[in-house]
């Protein structure tokens, strides 16, 4: 803008400094020359003045109009440049505001992620009154406990004559339906699991909901992938069962599905009788 402005100002200055004085000098020279060579008598001075007035006035009027037109054009260009600069400033402010908004979001997101990690690290698997495992190891043993105690049943027919009889453990038929599986999960949650994992699922939901409701964040999946990368295989399995239950199917499950938190679930750790539930969740 400054270069164009200076160019316009220089052109205007040249017109004002050179064209007007040169025109005035030219008029004076013509008048003197006409006076000198035409041998005008005093009686003819008035007529000569009228003649020059008739010739010069239109020229001066034209020159005035020319300067006026150029002045108007100069002002129009200035207004265009001003609007352009205002537009650029507005875009710059919007970009700055967006960057600040993203920065605030990321600060909150990573604090939530840190809180989530700290909470998980303090999860304890307690057996017979003693803390046996903590953190991700505790999560693994909670999942194994859920499988062995609530999902499986012993269908072995006791044979008193065989003290080394092999036990037959199978998946409870009642868990092959969503309603039956929900009942088993609720029992597990109320017995031991809920006290350790209630806060875990609340934090997980709040992180997903926070990302999902942030209007200024375009690539939301980038942040949910960071969250997904924090989850162990047993956490993903437990989230799977929670989404099937009445605890998680209404609020948590839609966000888990939207941001594909179950994408890397390892089906080899799922009972084959429950794999069809995974297809329902996808």
UniProtKB/TrEMBL annotation:
InterPro entries: PutAbiC. The chain crosses the membrane at residues 15-38, 50-70. It comes from the Bacteria. Keywords: Membrane, Transmembrane, Transmembrane helix. It holds the Pfam family putAbiC. This is Phage abortive infection protein.
